[in-house]
Q: What sequence folds into this?
């Protein structure tokens, strides 16, 4: 059996090894660098190895909001996982204490240092240069130095998110009252759901209109406002009555006489 490359590397001189196609670590680095120069047109610097991975920070969500966060080229993608419905908080996103952001500078790459704390602030959109309204903690995200997080941290995150949901619920109710249904979006619906509130605007495509009988708000497309105090057919034409009778919502005898006459004629 011929000797393996590892055996050759360990037992023969550098020159002899090179003759049989085995290279040492120094030569390997040169090959990687020249290959990368050929492939990318610039030199990639190798990251120092053995970077600390502890202590970590953890980002959790107490809401159904989760997201893959892209902090820009050179950074890994960070995924904040949403909270499953039967849990109080979702799985952790672990953040290492140091990150190196690989940046291309003309024909070499440089590694810029970022602390785990800076990464956390960028993900949560907090800290210097961030607008308070972008703060992801309002959407149920929070950071902890521990996994699992403390009860106080979870409670604090729930309180902040509940406060934001209450604001959104009130806003949704105001829009609904003003018939500005296009202003109501997914964040309002999620807020109502989280707070366990039954609202008449929680269906995405449900446009509300006035009942022609009693002026109450009813979903668009309603054939008959079938409540004891109303019962108005929304399209009081021959076609409307024919449809309502066919669907069994109205009886022939409910229709005005001229429509009854028309219906009998066409039957
Ligand atoms: Zn009505």
A:
């Amino acid at each position: 059996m011929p000797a393996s490359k590892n055996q050759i590397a360990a037992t023969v001189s550098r020159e002899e090894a090179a003759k049989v196609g085995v290279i040492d670590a120094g030569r390997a680095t040169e090959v990687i660098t020249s290959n990368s120069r050929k492939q990318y047109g610039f030199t990639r610097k190798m990251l120092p190895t053995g970077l600390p991975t502890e202590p970590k920070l953890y980002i959790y969500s107490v809401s159904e909001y989760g997201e893959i966060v892209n902090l820009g080229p050179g950074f890994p993608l960070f995924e904040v996982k949403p909270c499953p419905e039967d849990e109080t908080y979702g799985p952790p996103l672990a953040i290492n204490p140091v990150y190196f952001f690989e940046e291309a500078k003309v024909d070499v790459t440089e590694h810029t240092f970022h602390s785990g704390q800076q990464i956390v602030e960028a993900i949560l959109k907090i800290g210097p240069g961030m607008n308070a309204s972008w703060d992801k903690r309002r959407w149920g995200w929070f950071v902890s130095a521990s996994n699992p997080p403390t009860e106080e941290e979870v409670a604090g995150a729930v309180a902040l998110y509940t406060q934001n949901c209450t604001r959104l619920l009130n806003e949704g109710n105001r829009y609904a009252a003003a018939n500005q249904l296009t202003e109501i979006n997914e964040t309002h619906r999620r807020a109502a759901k989280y707070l366990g509130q039954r609202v008449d605007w929680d269906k995405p495509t449900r446009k509300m209109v006035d009942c022609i009988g009693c002026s109450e708000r009813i979903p668009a497309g309603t054939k008959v406002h079938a409540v004891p105090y109303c019962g108005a057919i929304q399209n009081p034409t021959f076609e409307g009555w024919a449809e309502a009778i066919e669907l069994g919502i109205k009886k022939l005898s409910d229709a005005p006489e001229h429509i009854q006459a028309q219906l009998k004629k066409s039957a």
